[in-house]
Amino acid sequence: MISVRDISLSYGGQALFENASLQINDGDRFALVGPNGSGKSTLFRLILGEVEPDRGRVEMKRGTVIGYLPQENAPVSDKTVLESALDGFHSPDDRLKARAKAVLMGLGFKVADFTRPMRELSGGWAMRTALARLLVRDPDILLLDEPTNHLDLYSLLWFRNYLLEYRGTVVVISHDRVFINTVCRKIVSVQEHVLRVYHGDYDHFSREREEEKRRLEASYRTQQAEIGRMKEFIDRNRARLSTARRAQSMMKRLDRVERIEIPPDPKLVKIKLPQPARGGKEVMRLAGVCKSYGKLSVYHNLDFSVPRGASMALVGPNGAGKSTLLKILAGVLPFESGERKPGHNLTIGYHSQHRAETMDESRTVLDEATAGSREKAPEFVRTVLGSFLFPGDDVFKKVKVLSGGEKSRLSLVKILLDPPNYLLLDEPTTHLDMDSVQALINALAKFEGTMAFISHDVHFINSLAKQVVHVDRGRITVYPGNFELFQWRQSQATKPK
């Protein structure tokens, strides 16, 4: 269907690909994985013909229809949401309209949203509409660049199930390992300027890579020992007339040895967070809280208690009130009646996408990261920034030139450098690559305070949640355990008796 043949491509003297090849056949399910900046998104642009390789070529079966979802910048127009989802169809019939509505609802839209103009939508909802348009078109190949970034947990689960039924070819870039494990059957490693295909899911790929690394290191040690013996022989014999010829022959052999090289170790950055001051046994209590948006009542007489040491994942359908609850707990959203009672010695850190707007845009990334926090060693600060995709001299960029995703990551870094004893995180893994997500998980797993978070990353939830808080139409139910256990309980409850 698509053949990438021996492509080489460099930008500014830096090689992205060198004689890289890939065959994409009908029905393939590929996940592209590799370090940030390795060329994953560029490979999509090569396939689409938006970028020409320096050498090599991309060949495509005639008539192949490609659906492409970029990471950002969905087009905004005066069309309604439904019209945008049906864009490209000259005269959509009732069957097609019904399909578009079903896809939009699966991605979290309500019926009332169908007639909303696209210009009223946030960037995230515009991206959902762009995704809906692709799914309605039902192309031969889907090229999806971080498609889950703008989805909530429930729309993500719907989308995952949709792709399992989709009959075409899928090539996806994603930081969500559970999504990859569920949807993809092959992994394409975009690393060291080449494309290597591994059969199986991401977990199998990780094991294979570790085994390859062990074999390579063993071969390297064996070769280094042999090189050492050859050099010792040369040093011992080249000065003696009787053995100089043999030493000369050994030197030629040594020159011909193809050296085994160990690639740079992409080990996960380890972040050791300073631990917060200990708070009271009850971190927060909400008593009789009522919260409405106009005529829409979200919570009525809500009672909710948060014990010290809890790590709560807030889950529920779109619009159920998860972010509202998080904001009430954080103290950044007023409510009509009831009480919010903070516990003893409570300090709160709240991360949301909109918090980035409160930054001082004249500062550098490094200065903004350390503003107002306890003094930290510069090496530690730059290590944390590096793990959240601010490597090297990027720490000297001005905040004003950062993208929305970069500001969101910087907001998260500020909290982690000086963590309070109650962390409230709204979609903290958005705009992070897989290694950075794991670095965040590892750091938060050792956090001794209390946490509540909203996330669409199932691996993140299962790694950190000790309780699942199910939010549904103003009702809150707390379940012990992670999301996997919660899903099992839900499936048992819905089984016919």
Describe the structure.
The protein is of the alpha/beta class. The protein has three domains: 2-204, Rossmann fold (3-Layer(aba) Sandwich), CATH 3.40.50; 205-256; 282-494, P-loop containing nucleotide triphosphate hydrolases (Rossmann fold), CATH 3.40.50.300. It is built from 15 helices and 18 strands. The chain has helices spanning 40-48, 81-85, 94-106, 123-137, 153-165, 177-183, 202-237, 244-256, 322-330, 365-370, 378-387, 404-417, 434-445, 458-464, 483-494, and strands spanning 2-11, 14-24, 29-33, 55-60, 66-69, 141-145, 169-173, 186-191, 194-199, 282-293, 296-307, 311-315, 337-342, 348-351, 422-426, 450-454, 467-472, 475-480. Strands 5-6-7-3-8-9 form a six-stranded mixed beta sheet, sandwiched between helices. It has a six-stranded mixed beta sheet with strand order 14-15-16-12-17-18, with helices on both faces. A hairpin with a 2-residue loop joins strand 10 and strand 11 (296-307). Helix 3 crosses helix 4 and helix 7 runs antiparallel to helix 8 (244-256). The longest helix is centred in the middle third of the chain and has 36 residues, at 202-237. The model has no long low-confidence stretch (mean pLDDT 89).
Comma- or semicolon-separated keywords:
36% helix, 24% strand, alpha/beta, Rossmann fold, 497 residues, six-stranded mixed beta sheet, globular, 18 strands, 3 domains
